[in-house]
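re: ur msg from earlier - yeah i can do the pyridoxal-5'-phosphate complex, just paste it... oh wait u already did. ok heres what im feeding in:
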Amino acid sequence: MNHILENLQPSASVALMARAKEMQKADPTVIGLAGGEPDFDTPERITRAAIDSLLAGNTHYTDSAGIPELRAAIAEKLRADNGIDADASRVLVTPGGKYAIYLTVNALLNPGEEALILDPSWVSYGPIVRAAHGVDVHVKLQAAEAYRITREALEAAVTDRTRLLILNYPNNPTGRILHTDEAEAVEAFLLAHPQVWLLSDEVYETIVYGEKSLSMGARPAVADRVVTVNGFSKCAAMTGWRLGYLHAPEPAFRLIARLYSHSMSCASGFLQAGAAEAFSCREEMERMRRVYARRRDLFIVAMNAIPGVRAEYPEGAFYAWVFFDLPGMDSQAVSRYLMERARVVGMPGSAYGEEGCALRFSFANAAEDMAEAARRIREAILALN
Ligand SMILES: Cc1ncc(COP(=O)(O)O)c(C=O)c1O
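and the outut:
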């Protein structure tokens, strides 16, 4: 048996989501805010295009890297929205952004080589690096510094075995976007370390509440070492379709495409035909974004009104990152307590490598549920005093 896989923990968010569903069977009033899944339906135009394609008999293997019209639409989107000098020949369509990350990590690391991950970080980066026989090196960004990336923090973690830096903006779990000073720090770092590639995970791109997050792939000085990952799950409410994509410069693209052809062959053709419609669903995406914005405001205001609880307004994604100042309780204890007492399920910050006592609550849930969850959290916290 593979010792590395034996030592990996299952995804904490997937496990807690399943736990919430289990609890809801016995008690339908349980409010599950642990998952990272839009509660909206996929825009109808996308679904119809997939059904039409299926009925038209599109049930065969496609080109391994994806159907030409979708790859072209993705390249056009990356050029127009992200300022990336993208070419359809370097776009690969994958079953979910997660698999695009998996391929990239495997293509860029040799056994024992290191990937820098900025904590707090999404729960799957570390396991994906380890499963690829790489070493995940965690750079702790500080809540007190608004989790800003600094050149110093990166330099302190780099070694002669570092080959990859993973960035995720808009960020899960903190809701931070990538700002100009940080992009400049990352660029300077990459220029000083020509052996290091960058994986930029931008799956929450369209869900922002002010400025747009920057794409490192748009910076010409380093673009030849930036793999950009994005997908349809979060932005177009298509989690169950399992469709994402990446854009990679040569020579990474060649290796990624090689591994893909041996591990997945291709993504489903009729689903890809549906996804090709996603880029003409801007209005629907904008409507979802506005609804997230209202829920965000409601929940953040409610959290900050509870004594000993504080939360910044996230700049992007659909997570509230909430700090609890409760003597003797860490994030796991608070998560357990709220689950039992308030029947509200939130992810403990420790799952993301946060040392402070933070919980992540998804506001990709109905506003009434968010309001009720906030009310119950308040009651539960007040009951402790
Ligand atoms: C930061 C981040 N990256 C990637 C993914 C993967 O999304 P998908 O595989 O559904 O495209 C997720 C999903 O939770 C995520 O939060």
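cool cool. The longest helix spans residues 282-304. ping me if u need the other ligands too
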